[in-house]
Every structure is written in structure tokens, then in C-alpha cells.
Amino acid sequence: xxxxxxGVSGAGKTTVGKLLAQKLxxxxxxxxxxxxxxxxEKMKNGIPLTDEDRQxxxxxxxxxxxxxxxxxxxxxxxxxxxxxxxRDHLRVNEEVKLVFLRASRxxxxxxxxxxxGHFMNPALLDSQFRDLEEPKPEEDICVIDIEGTAxxxxxxxxxxxxxxx
Length: 165
Known about the structure:
Elements: E1 2-6, H1 13-24, E2 27-30, H2 37-44, H3 51-70, E3 75-78, H4 84-90, E4 96-102, H5 105-114, H6 125-131, E5 142-145, H7 150-160
Parallel strand pairs: 1-3, 1-4, 2-3, 4-5
Helix pairs in contact: 1-7
């Protein structure tokens, strides 16, 4: 199974995803490491990525997901997947489950101000929310409102999605 933890930058995808992977003894992948150098440079400079910029990145992620499924490797992937088209592209089959971390813009902004050492320019938060297409019920995505600690959120995901090692 592949579980994609998605949401805007600063929602806690990587932190929660790593905790969940560690708890389940699953592999963890961060979609940020699949970006091209050009995309990283754009984001560092506060330039929002376009759909065209994201397409090769999404394709690399889809290939990794397929490799995990082919190898029967359970994994967690932290990935923004802001638009429904992106989520649909990554959902290779029914073994790919998605969880969306939702929080107010104010809470996300607070998270970004506390984060250090990440290439994502906090100035891009507006573009993240502009691009965001919150999941609709028919997408069958587990939506988690971010409250409490990252451990609390990881525990809630594990319980709601009935995940186990």
C-alpha cells in the first residue's frame, strides 16, 4: 500500500509522514526530493511552479509509486498534490490511499515561520492556497484537520485509515 500525505506547504506532511512510516515500519519518501534543480531554484526565489513545471515531477512520483507497488513495498509519500488532477495522476490503483492535512491559512503561516532549512519560500503560501483544490467526497480521501501535535495527527491517520505494520 502507498499512502500519500498531502496538503499545502507547512501543513506537516513530512513530519507526520516520517512519524507514520517509522511507527508502521514502512518506507518514507518526500516528494520534495523528486523536484528538478530548476523547480527548487524557482521555489527558493518565490516563483510559483506552473502545471508544466510540475508535470515531470509528478511523473517521477508516479513511477516511484508504481515501483513500490510492484515490489509490494508499503510506503508513505509526503506530497503536496494540491490539485485533483495531480492526485488522480498519482493514484495508480486502489492500493494508493490519500490523506489530506487541512488547516487554516493562519495556522499554516505559523508553521512556516517556525520551519528552518527548507527551500520553499514562505512567500509562496498564497500561491499554494490559490492552487489548492480541497478534496471532494467522491475522491475518497481521508481529510484530517490539523490539531494537536504531529504525533497526534499521525495517530489519527493510523486509526482512521486502519493502517498497521
